[in-house]
Amino acid sequence: LSQTKPLASVLKDVCDAWSLPNAERYALQYADGRQTYITESNRRDIKNGSILRLTTSPDQEAERLYVGIQSKNVDVKTDSLKKLASLSQDVTFAQEFISRNGLKQIYSIVEEGKDAGEMLAHTLKAFTELMEHDFVSWENLSTVFIKKIVSYVNMNAVDASIQQLSLSILENMVPTSHLLFEVVKKEVTLDRLLTHLQATNAQLQLKAMALLIALLLSATDAERRDMMDYLREKNIRQFIHKNIIHSSEPLGDEMAHYLYVLQSVSLNLCEHRMKMSMDPYSQEQRDLLQSLRQTAFELENEVPAGTFSTERRRSLCAKEFRKLGFMNNSNPAEDFRRAPPGLLALDNMVYFSRNTPNAYSRFVLENSSREDKHECPFARSSIQLTLILCEILHIGEPCSETAQAFYPMFFGQDHFFEELFCICIQLVNKTWKEMRATQEDFDKVMQVVREQITRTLSLKPTSLELFKTRVNALNYSEILKLRQTERLHQEETLAVPVLELREKLKPELLELIRQQRLLHLCEGTLFRKISSRRRQDKLWYCRLSPNHKVLHYGDVEEGVQSPPIESLTEKIPVADMKMLLVGKECPHTKEKSSGKQNKDVLELAFSIVHDVEEYCLNFIAPTRYEFCLWTDGLNVLLGKEMTSERTQTDLDVLLSMELKLRLLDLENISIPDHPPPIPKPPSNLNFCYDFSHAEQ
């Protein structure tokens, strides 16, 4: 194929060679993989070695299928719809078909509702693919069409594949406009979605979860709160914990992401209270505050109301609020003026006092009766702890588009945030006593508590009980040991001779990291295609050939773990690679809108520029770890330095292990900063033993 000749001339030559008239009725398309049509705009993407075939042109094919799907013959109609579903992935064909008003025919097939089974599944698949190209707005859909799609989701006696496609269509529809969101929310009840979630079919379960998440993300704050309350009533948390997280099947990336979003949306319901300062004139809030005092000191308060004057009562209240650990004991409402954590701290304190009254009373009375300046202030600690928990759990931050990091224990517990607070506030008291802290040490104690919580959460405990056991085991002395080990390790490695040894070892260990990166590229990785509208289900795989000469890639189906290299039809010779782009420099991130939501995509995006024409192969890594390994590996192939943060951590780990092994014999021996002085040479060198005389 000559890239300099216009495509029309190329087609004419091919048709003439085969004596085919009307060259304009033909087109070229790839013979393998996604059989995309070749056009003037995408012809530069053709790789050397790609096999093309002569086929009917997109406009002819669109015309033929447009007529075929209106046929009275069932077989012709079914075949036409099947072919349409497959060809609609191609943008050139989709344009031709839509320009013939083809979508109107698809609408009428669905709206009339005469066809079912396989024929309907092909129709819905074709519709989904055509809408994917964004030529037509979702808002153009008729009410009848939407109601029909909704009916497939709401009816029981419908094939699972049709229900999956219908759920997928509704999921795409919801984020496009608030009007469509309202329609879907009204027509597809949460009860119905919960029924699908409980299906044994994993794909149906996944699509139902996708629609549920799309509805939650598109809802207003008030609607979201109502929806979450309803889901809580219906025990969705227990169901997810038992049947999805602890099911026999491993959790897929897509489901892990949806669970992360559900956790994030649920925790963000606290944001409203977190950002609200206390109103000293609100009777409800003042009652909550007084309840803390009454619960703690109720026995002491069993005195008839008329006994004290107002002045005496006020001073008694102030004294009790001071015992509770408020900074401003005459007007404790002032302590809740800082937002965050705002009223969320008060809610947590009230929850702790009502749900674990014994632990609450013990905390307060134990500290209020101490006179040695070692009392732990309950109120001040609670306010600071609430702020720490909000920061650790990212409350008030928008959901990431790709994250999958959820806490399994979140779904194992009602009132997760409050229960976590109850465990951690008792941890504060325990750590305070272990540190024998005074008021001046408050910030130090809270720093240790933050470390205890983050270190324990990083172990991903599966239940709050397990979290409690582990966080209590990680006492102050353990934290000190960990810190000391880290500090000693730092000091040890900062001695001058050790630093010189580090520098000597670096090249060898960097080579080891390079080999590991290339091996990882040879194993390959599954990448996900993300459109501007939503997380897509389309996957592709990329891997390096064992001789490190060619990058192979191609589309794969869900569930394929490690496709053989022969099945990946596309390839890029390493010699043709020009450079690596990351983050904002990538062409596929420039097209996207810049918002908070896309920050995580920017951190995972990279592109390879290759060939003379400077084509780009665009990637979005599944995790930051994969991003680091791939960008390092590609830099190695390009003969450049490895620049990711992972390289530095890997190098530090390897250097530290190697240095520890080398310094084993020097334990308890202090290493001098300077080598010992070399003595001067002797005045004469006549002290050599002469063996020749001895032999005689």
Automatic annotation (TrEMBL):
Gene3D superfamilies: 6.10.250.810, Leucine-rich Repeat Variant, Pleckstrin-homology domain (PH domain)/Phosphotyrosine-binding domain (PTB)
All copies of domain ELMO, residue ranges: 284-457
Keywords: Apoptosis, Phagocytosis, SH3-binding
UniProt key word ATP-binding: no
Domain of life: Eukaryota
Protein's name according to its UniProt entry: ELMO3 protein
Matching CDD domains: PH_ELMO1_CED-12 (cd13359)
Phylogenetic classification of the source organism: Eukaryota, Metazoa, Chordata, Craniata, Vertebrata
One of the GO BP terms on file: apoptotic process
Gene Ontology molecular function terms on file: SH3 domain binding
Native source organism of the sequence: Tichodroma muraria
Function (record text): Involved in cytoskeletal rearrangements required for phagocytosis of apoptotic cells and cell motility. Acts in association with DOCK1 and CRK. Was initially proposed to be required in complex with DOCK1 to activate Rac Rho small GTPases. May enhance the guanine nucleotide exchange factor (GEF) activity of DOCK1.
SUPFAM superfamilies the UniProt entry points to: ARM repeat, PH domain-like
